[in-house]
Amino acid sequence: MKQTMIPPAHNKTHSDKIIRRKLSDQVVEKLRGMILSHEVEPGDYMPSERALMEKFGVGRPAVREALQSLHNSGLISINHGERSRVNEIDAGTVLSQSDDIARLVLSAVPANLEHLKHARQMFELGMIRVAAANATAEDVADLRAIHAKQQENVGNATAFIEADMNFHTRLAEMTGNPIIVSVSRAMLGWLFEYHVSLLHWSGKEDVTLSEHAEMIDLIEKRDVEGAVATMSRHLARSAGVFEVKS
Questions:
Q1: Which of 164, 186, 216, 241 suits 65 as a labelling partner, its CA being 20 to 30 A distant?
Q2: CA-CA distance, 32 to 53, in Å (whole number)?
Q3: Using N-to-C axis directions, what is the helix angle for 157-173 and 178-195, rounded to 10°?
Q4: What predicted TM-score, i.e. pTM, was given to this entire model?
């Protein structure tokens, strides 16, 4: 007896559905393609809204929404009264877009501040190891100039902290790795801008200055292990400066 084959029932899944993409999303994809293909270079102005409308066959709202999306992601800058301009794309561009998210994460889950401190410690110890091994006379001179500036601002917490950030950023630059520099700046920004207690610096400036001076001397001598040990003590002591803002 011949059996009749019954075709299997077609199971409709979510993936079978055709989803209409927003026009602005399609324009974003096209504009990103223009940037990635170097049709427009960093520093160039993007085509006018009218030119983009004609190029892609869409209305002004779709173009404006797409340009705003690229601005929010850091790919372009929009200034009132001017055409949008393509930004230089690097690690700093990407990380700067994370500032709001980092603030939310650190504020919502206080334990993450301790994780950030730990991450910074691991990062800075590796960073100063490379810096001490490769320091030039110019690097050391720059560090001493920053140290002098920080010393001048004892009693001015904001300026003192700014000089402190400059000191650690200069160490990052000594690695010669732009990604390390960008990550260092991002972590310092998240710590200092959102979770630093200015009152905790009062009376402790001299200790910070002493530790920085010791690090500079060790770096100048190419004493890698000594510089790492001093940085470790410095970070352990200053960890209490950072606290979640209420």
A1: 186
A2: 16
A3: 160
A4: 0.65
Q: What is the pLDDT of residues 126-177, one digit of tens each?
A: 999 999 999 999 999 999 999 999 999 988 888 888 899 999 999 999 999 9
DSSP assignment letter at 37? T
Q: In angstroms, rounded to a whole number, what is the distance separating the alpha carbons of residues 88 and 144?
A: 31
Alpha helices in the chain (DSSP H): 23-36, 49-56, 60-72, 91-96, 99-108, 111-134, 137-152, 157-173, 178-195, 205-220, 224-238
Q: Which structural domains are found in the chain, ordered by start?
A: 21-89 (1.10.10.10), 95-241 (1.20.120.530)
Burial of 62 (0-12, 13-18, 19+ CB in 10 A): buried
Q: Which amino acid is at 124?
A: E
Entry field: residues in the chain:
246
Token pair of 38 as six digits:
């170097």
Cα 28 to chain centroid distance, Å, stands at 23
CB 119 within 8 A of CB 242: no
Structural element, H or E, at residue 164: helix 157-173
DSSP 16: G
Q: Match 């994809």 to its residue by tokens.
A: 29
Residue 158 confidence (pLDDT): 82
Q: How far apart are CA 38 and CA 18, in angstroms?
A: 32
C-alpha 204, offset from chain centre: 28
Residue 6 has pLDDT above 60, yes or no: no
pLDDT for 199 equals 47
